[in-house]
Amino acid sequence: MHNITGSICAAALAGLWLTACPALAESAPEDLVSRANAGDDAATSELGAWLYGREDKAAMPWLRKAMAHGDAEATYVLGMIKRDGELGVAADWNGGMSLLQQAALMGSGNAIYELNTCCDTPQAYAPPAAGVERLRWALRVRDANGEDTRLEAEIAALNKAGYGADIAEWRVAYLEDLKAAEDGDARAAEAVAYRYLTGEGVRPDMASAEKWFQAVADDGEYYHQLITARHYESGELGDQRRGMAVIYYTRAAGSVRARAEAGDRDAQVQLARLYADDRLGAVNTAAQAFQWYIRAAASGDVEAQAAVGKALLNGHGTTQDTGAGLDWLTRAANNNGHRLTGDDNARAVSAYQVDLAKVLAARGEHAQADYWLQLGLDNRGDTDAADHVALQRKLQGKLSDAQKQDNASAVRVWHGRYDPPAYALK
Asked: What domains are there in the chain, each with its CATH number?
């Protein structure tokens, strides 16, 4: 059910339904009952909303009566019922949307909001021509008073039309972002691109979203090129445009390559990820990913150390070497000898600890596997993961009491050395 705001939020059952709904009638305020029975329009609307909120078909005649008397919110509710097929009413998308348009023209803020957020849908909607721009794809500025006053003019227009505060804020934020984007602010340009993609404060427009994502990527920053590539890859900018993802992933790789070659560890990891995820349309991507990961791992990057360890264990992109793989994965599981630096770091390290535990368990090294699994469960803050708990029980079933005690003691020592997050020792 939809949330109805304003005067209809505190609705109660009117006297007409005393016989049909005796249990509900007992809680109906007498004043509201008498006002509804006397034909009070506000009480009639409140009654319809009250019944609608309880999914009671008896709402329909009250809502229709209120709509006939010009009640905007009752018209809005009837539009939602008809559009979505509620209370036994046959679903009629266009008919419901037409009622929402009518309610919006009558001043219903709820209807105006719905018209501006509803239409990311496969169902066609052909509203009446009048008011389409203002209501279906609302929140545009006419610029009649010039650039300096457009925000103030917009707020006034929104308030007059019955927009809620959140809608006004969306539009104002869009306009502010747009002005900053036009002045060259990359963060604002990214925000504008997202707004065109999602329809927050402006009509959804894939072509405009693509334009602004490309403008963001053209600043040469790896991150901006990466997010543009991801939006192409996801199909959000059009199913026929996914080939553009490789272009922008390749640009991202170019943006970090020089830094990576100069020894920048973060850039090396970023480049390795692009190869490892096969984002560049290149050959021998696993081998190239390994080469960049090994350079970052040697510089102490924990993510890279884990990636190198797994690659060596599996022979992925390099010659298989179990001993070296275990060494690198153990470094990552130990956070490369450094203290944990927050929840994100702890969760990443916990994943490496669980990975190491699984490798050791498969090799029959049950005591070591149990030790790393306990640490992994502690540091991820989730001791109830069913598959890991089952593995832990299996491992501990193979250990003596002395081995279990030794592991518990060793886990406490590790936590003392590595400063676990607050949740780890609860």
From this structure: 6-136 (1.25.40.10), 139-203 (no CATH), 334-426 (no CATH)
